[in-house]
């Protein structure tokens, strides 16, 4: 007999799939601002770009950086990603822990995209903390690591590499969950005892581990919530491929302490993600980004070298999807019909294609029908009805659609 918990998970996943179909698609690949500016030349002039830096002009435009030895502009063609320069951030074991190269936005904004290229030196360690997107317009908010920020003061996220060479978000906000208890409550509500709140983690599944000493295109998006609602968002792209988008309705997963998981043994009560209530005041908007390279003394102890370094290049801050750098301008408009000869499908290929499509439709319809039947057995009549309606709408020519129609009659 199928466990009741597993059935419930299937039903929730089916309902989430129905909802997700109504969500606007997340842009990917060469469809962003960068597609119009080969090698990022002139990208800073786009009306939705706030800042762009490849460090060709050194630290021009940046708000703050550390001294030479921690932050250095490198002009070695064998190292830089594009152009003639990049930033090298170094943490010197026994002397310092690295530092932040900060850009403070000239105005606060409701939605932010940050794209940058990163390259980890082959011998470097994975840092304690990495790049930040911050919404703290008044500066220091009165707390620190381990404490929950006030909704009228600040929220922020870290874009963090892991020891397994994958990526996650590490986020602080006023509705964040505590690590103290499985349900996310602190030991002494509402503020907890001591440092009850560390960054909540969002680690996408099925990532391809990145390689050391190779350039990686990283892009992150965050969107403020409407005050009083949980409609805030954040998303992640690696080399132009979406690896995660958290917004009302997706992904489907479970909270366990201070983590939102979408697989594994702790994904016991999967539900569509509720969205983010990042702030309680409209004054709290995105105000700064930081190319952070923080290697704590504890992390540095296990490293291979005394100088742990990471390179950064081709940083862009914008209010819409940016995408990876392109070598040639990507055409987005379709060609006129007269511009090329129409493609004629082979008379042999057409029936084969149609048969494959028919089989795929029958298989998908059958899967949805089984989910609907399980929903019925658990008393979830409304979920079952939506699934039957989806079968009829998407796969009307299948035998399964006739069965679904009979169920609705």
Could you describe the 3D structure shown?
- With 409 residues, this protein is α+β, with helices and mostly antiparallel strands.
- The chain has two domains: 1-26 and 346-409; 31-318, Jelly Rolls (Sandwich).
- The chain has five helices and 17 strands.
- Strands 4-16-6-7-8-9-14-13-15 form a nine-stranded mixed sheet, covered by helices on one side. Strands 1, 2, 3, 5, 10, 11, 12 and 17 form an eight-stranded antiparallel sheet that branches.
- α4 (381-394) packs antiparallel against α5.
- The longest helix has 29 residues, at 349-377.
- The radius of gyration is 25 Å and the shape is globular.
Main features:
8-stranded antiparallel sheet; 9-stranded mixed sheet; 18% helix; Jelly Rolls; 2 domains; 5 helices; 409 residues; globular; alpha+beta
* Mean pLDDT across residues: 88
Kindly state the percentage of residues in helix: 10-25%
Q: Describe the oligomeric state of these chains in a short phrase.
A: single chain
How do the strands line up in the largest sheet? 4-16-6-7-8-9-14-13-15
Outline type: globular
Write down the CATH topology of the largest domain. Jelly Rolls
SSE-based structural type = alpha+beta
Assign the CATH architecture of the largest domain: Sandwich
- Annotation field: number of helices: 5
CATH level-1 class of the largest domain: Mainly Beta
Q: Strand share of the residues?
A: 25-35%
Q: How many beta-strand segments?
A: 17
Distance between the termini: 29 Å
- What is the domain total for the residues? 2
The major sheet is characterized as: 9 strands, mixed
- Report the radius of gyration as a whole number of Å: 25 Å
What's the helix-strand series? HEEEEEEEEEEEEEEEEHEHHH
Low-confidence stretches: 333-350
């Amino acid at each position: 007999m199928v466990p009741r918990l597993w059935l419930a998970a299937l039903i929730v996943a089916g309902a989430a799939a129905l909802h997700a179909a109504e969500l606007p698609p997340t842009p990917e690949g060469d469809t962003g601002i960068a597609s119009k500016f080969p090698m990022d030349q002139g990208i800073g002039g786009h009306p939705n770009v706030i800042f762009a830096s490849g460090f060709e002009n050194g630290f021009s435009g940046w708000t703050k950086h550390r001294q030479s030895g921690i932050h250095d502009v490198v002009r070695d063609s064998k190292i830089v990603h594009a152009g003639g320069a990049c930033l090298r951030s170094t943490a010197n074991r026994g002397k310092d822990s690295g530092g932040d190269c900060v850009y403070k936005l000239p105005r606060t904004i409701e939605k932010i995209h940050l794209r940058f290229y990163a390259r980890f030196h082959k011998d470097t360690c994975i840092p304690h903390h990495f790049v930040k997107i911050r919404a703290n317009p008044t500066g220091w908010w009165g707390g620190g690591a381990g404490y929950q920020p006030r909704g009228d003061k600040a929220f922020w996220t870290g874009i963090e590499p892991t020891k397994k060479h994958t990526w996650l978000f590490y986020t602080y906000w006023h509705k964040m969950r505590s690590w103290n208890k499985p349900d996310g409550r602190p030991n002494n509500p509402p503020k907890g005892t001591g440092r009850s709140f560390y960054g909540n983690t969002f680690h996408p599944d099925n990532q391809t581990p990145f390689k050391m000493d190779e350039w990686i295109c990283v892009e992150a998006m965050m969107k403020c919530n409407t005050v009083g609602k949980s409609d805030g968002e954040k998303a992640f792209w690696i080399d132009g491929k979406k690896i995660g988008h958290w917004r009302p309705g997706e992904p489907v997963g479970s909270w366990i302490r201070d983590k939102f998981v979408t697989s594994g043994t702790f994904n016991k009560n999967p539900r569509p993600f509720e969205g983010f209530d990042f702030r309680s005041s409209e004054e709290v908007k995105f105000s700064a980004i930081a190319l952070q390279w923080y290697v704590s003394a504890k992390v540095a102890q296990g490293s291979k070298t005394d100088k742990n370094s990471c390179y950064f290049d081709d940083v862009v801050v914008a209010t819409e999807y940016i995408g990876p750098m392109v070598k040639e301008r990507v055409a987005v408009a379709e060609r006129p019909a007269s511009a090329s000869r129409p493609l004629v499908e082979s008379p042999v290929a057409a029936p084969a294609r149609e048969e494959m499509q028919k089989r795929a439709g029958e298989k998908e319809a059958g899967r949805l029908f089984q989910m609907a039947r399980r929903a019925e057995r658990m008393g979830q009549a409304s979920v079952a009805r939506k699934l039957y309606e989806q079968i009829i709408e998407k796969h009307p020519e299948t035998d399964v659609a006739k069965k679904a129609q009979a169920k609705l009659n």
